[in-house]
Write a sequence for this structure.
């Protein structure tokens, strides 16, 4: 292997490449599986595997030792992504992309159900467009990638590679919208966007990322507000019910509002290191872009008005949120509803004459589960031992493992292991292969895991939010790495001071608010709302 | 309306914007529907529509008068796409995008069935990558868009906005592939690509377009060849069975082979003006990119070898192919299998007291069809007359229209019209609303239309291919706008001479070949194969 010619990376990334543990791990010495491998599994490597010598998945840095190293290790070991050749870019590998596809599949249906159509806008935007909306240009101009040469010639006007599409959307909306009959206009696009970020992190903040961006135009402010709220609700529901991430939905402070929006709604998620992740946003844009681009309509009374708009987005960042919410030292842990593979079946046999019967049973179980709509995969490779496979699919976060060995075949039963409950506790022996029993059992386990991941995340979240009534208390909570929640009505300057002194920002004014007027913990003035402060990604 | 403030386009496109007929048409005077509107439809505009005054869809230039004008008119009137603000870019509107989604839905399943996984590569490629494969850089360098500024700073190395991804794919494959166990590596991505084209045309050739690009690496030449052939077969099957386009699959000549490939397979479609459209390609890349990027593996005997590769793509250009294969003077005509809406239901009533019963029947018919898996839409808007709707949905190419008026309600029947058969001939009265009859009837009609569109296209294609046995005959055929098919074993220089003198190129050596050795129509030398020459898009 050492003689393989390897071309060096041509642009050195600002960070080291993901530690390439997997190839090494493939050749590493055997070792026991994490968790409690069944007696059969412990002993029974198929003959061919012996010749490979490999039995151990590349280990990852323990979460408690170094959360960031753990995160990038998991991404490498579970083969979710890799660094691209250009600094800050990311290649999304098939398994990571399959998680993104699961997110897309759910949201795409919801977007259509709520009346939106997909379409596609060009990614090249004339530079002058970006300058039209004052706060938009201020927010985005430091992050732009510019095309200046096309077809061998210097361009007359520089082109912006879209960092977001409000400007070009409004340019087109202005052409398409004439009358109130053309409203509401509700569209979405799945696209790549580019932001020249200085500090990058796979999935969380990359030079280029994938997202969906919804854009809508309405006849009234009320309709736009309702739409912005509806979409943050869609995101919230997705996060809770599918990703098992108990996000806190709320409104951004003025300081943190999207460049060009009147109001930004957000869902904020607590990662395993207690830092906050802004996991999705929905903006009420008011008439900011319609005024900048002259997007007008004739209302029912013949009056010309500017349209009221929204935009909203969720990106591949959400995949990072899933990793950092549920993962543990054994690797990724996927909520069943978004897991590309929900059940992995590992056949186990000692002697050659056992093989046929085991594989026949495996095949039958796979068919039964597949027909029941469960996403199931069999790994009957003879190049790997069962122990290696156990670790490998734990690393990949597959919710349920089924082992089938010769004794199981005799008993017409299988062994079922939960990814979220390590060791013996998560293991059930003698689960009947009878379709009516097996299917219900597995479906039940998948539901249990889904619910259990959510509850665990809720408990973690709630035990790390501190209610504060003074700036001192906030400082203490933030210093402990926790979120601080307290009444707030102070100035933007005070908010920036908190950021400077503690690195925490207002994540949101949560929708869920205690009743009554409180006292701002900073100024002592009356405060209508509590805000949540936290360090964030 | 004239008082609406409109911002001028900030970059003038090199071509005029699509003729904006629709907004004008909305306010145009009533006119008779194309085709034979039912008696009820002719008379019965809902009351509200009278106040709109509008009844006529924007007409398009007749196909026979100016095919190119017809094409862009249909794109505008059927709301498939619009020009973007940057020269040569295109906005794909919801209806056009829905056709692309239908293409994606079919191919995505086929790609996965044939063992490919989706993933995503960054779109920014270091300029030096493009230079690594000699013929690749020669082919693509004139068409590149280059990012030279990022985050406000001049970049040390210019970045190419991907025109195709072979180079970056190989850079990553080199990291991931070590051993024969890592092969075959078979991936696909759905992405946007950029080629700085000088002469652009919506869908057919745009600065930025959407496509899928498959990339695979194999241990042997034979496997790569088999894969390249498999994928051109997938495309061929899709074209015939779903898009009803009788493409001719074959091999490209050396001159027309992809920059960097050893062999290019293609599917060539005859458009309504008889010009050829290259509708999809599959390349056997040999070891060209693996040598340039050092993509090697250790084979079963411990030898280090370069991998053998393929790549293959279909793009939004295919949407243009669908328009230009099936459309007529009334607009778009969509094959039922890829039509976003297969059946449009238009309710018709004269008097207010008829409305409730008609809408109830419409609702019930819609439910019946939807439950049967038919993509159905109801247009019960009172802002438009039935006649307007007939034209509108003919323009949109919806395969089947169902009309339901008061008399139909009484008779428990509906009127069914085929988009592909104009006038009375395509119209059936008294089709029973009984679910068991109606569903079978509509499904049968959709199948008839699918088959009929294909047969019509085959007949058109075959009547416009001329077998030639001399250069003179070729010139004659090409001058008539037809395709010329003849034995060919002449040089690349002769091929370029044909292009120069007739504007025709070798579209392919079709897979289907007459038996025996023939005489090259250019040189008189023995020729193993016939080639097809045609003018192309």
């Amino acid at each position: 292997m050492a003689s393989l010619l390897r071309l060096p990376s041509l642009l050195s990334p600002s960070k080291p490449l993901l530690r390439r543990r997997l190839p090494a791990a493939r050749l590493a010495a055997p070792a026991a599986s994490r968790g409690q491998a069944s007696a059969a599994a412990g002993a029974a490597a198929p003959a061919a595997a012996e010749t490979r010598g490999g039995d151990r998945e590349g280990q990852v840095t323990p979460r408690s030792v170094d959360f960031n190293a753990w995160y990038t290790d998991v991404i490498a070991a579970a083969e979710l992504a890799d660094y691209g050749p250009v600094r800050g870019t990311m290649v999304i590998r098939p398994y990571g992309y399959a998680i993104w596809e699961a997110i897309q599949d759910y949201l795409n249906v919801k977007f259509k159900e709520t009346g939106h159509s997909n379409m596609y806008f060009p990614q090249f935007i004339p530079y002058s467009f970006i300058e039209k909306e004052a706060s938009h240009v201020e927010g985005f101009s430091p992050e732009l990638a510019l095309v200046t040469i096309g077809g061998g010639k210097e361009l007359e006007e520089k082109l912006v590679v879209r960092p977001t599409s409000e400007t070009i959307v409004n340019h087109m909306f202005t052409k398409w919208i004439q009358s109130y009959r053309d409203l509401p206009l509700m569209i979405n696009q799945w696209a790549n966007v580019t932001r020249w970020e200085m500090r990058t992190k796979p999935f969380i903040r990359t030079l280029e990322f994938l997202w969906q961006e919804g854009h809508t135009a309405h006849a009234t402010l009320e309709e736009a507000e309702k739409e912005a709220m509806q979409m943050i609700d869609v995101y919230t529901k997705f996060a809770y019910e599918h990703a098992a991430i108990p996000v806190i939905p709320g409104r951004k402070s003025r300081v943190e509002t999207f460049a060009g929006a009147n109001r930004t709604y957000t869902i904020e998620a607590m990662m395993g290191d207690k830092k906050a992740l802004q996991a999705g946003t929905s903006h009420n844009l008011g008439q900011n872009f319609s005024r900048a681009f002259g997007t007008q309509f004739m209302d029912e009374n013949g009056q010309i008005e500017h349209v009221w708009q929204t935009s909203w987005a969720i990106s591949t960042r959400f995949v990072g949120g899933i990793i950092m919410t549920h993962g543990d030292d054994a690797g990724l842990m996927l909520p069943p509803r978004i897991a590309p593979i929900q059940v992995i079946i590992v056949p186990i046999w000692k002697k050659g004459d056992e093989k046929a019967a085991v594989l026949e049973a495996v095949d039958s179980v796979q068919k039964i589960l597949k027909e029941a709509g469960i996403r199931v995969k069999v790994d009957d490779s003879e190049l790997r031992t069962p122990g290696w496979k156990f670790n490998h699919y734990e690393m990949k976060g597959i919710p349920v493992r089924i082992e089938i060995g010769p004794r199981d075949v005799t008993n017409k039963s299988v062994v079922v292991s939960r990814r979220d409950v390590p060791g013996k506790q998560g293991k059930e022996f003698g689960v009947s292969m009878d379709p009516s029993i097996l299917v219900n059992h597995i479906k039940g386990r998948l539901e249990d895991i889904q619910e259990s991941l959510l509850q665990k995340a809720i408990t973690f979240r709630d035990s790390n939010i501190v209610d504060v009534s003074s700036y001192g208390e906030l400082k203490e909570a933030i210093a402990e790495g926790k979120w601080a929640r307290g009444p707030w009505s102070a100035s933007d300057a005070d908010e920036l001071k908190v950021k400077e002194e503690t690195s925490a920002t207002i994540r949101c004014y949560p929708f869920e608010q205690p009743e009554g007027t409180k006292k701002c913990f900073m100024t002592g003035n009356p405060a209508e709302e509590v805000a949540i402060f936290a360090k964030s990604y």
